[in-house]
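for the writeup, i need someone to sanity check this before i put it in the appendix. the sequnce is what the collaborator sent (i think, or maybe the updated version? ugh). structure was predicted straight from it, no edits. if anything looks off just tell me and ill rerun, i have time this weekend
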Amino acid sequence: MHKVTKAALMGLIVTPVLTTALATPGNASTIAVGHVSAKAAAGDCPKGFTCFWTKKNFQGTRRLVHLGHKCVPNLHHNGKRITITVWSLTTQSVGATMYTKVNCKGTPSMSYVKGKKIKNAYGFKMASVT
């Protein structure tokens, strides 16, 4: 089970693998990137976060996003804007809607309510998320 510290809830997530920041002015949200453990493969996601996996059935690399009710306008890794191909997800925060373009524009995904575990999101190419 993952322990969420007070620092993590404030937008600072510490992971031994890699941390990817959502580099937007004034936005302290982060995505923690790491490999999925056997426990996480079952769709484990810390309370208050939305988790995205790069493969179906909660396999591959898991990314944690602390979502509020605002748009996370773009995703960055090592200073470069990225798009994440999402194959499965778990919503433990307010829910999620992914978008194909930055600033929560472009084609939206289905809107997923809090508490959902989606085994197959059909490879949605996410550039931003609410």
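The helical segments are 6-9. The chain has one helix and 13 strands.
thx in advance!!
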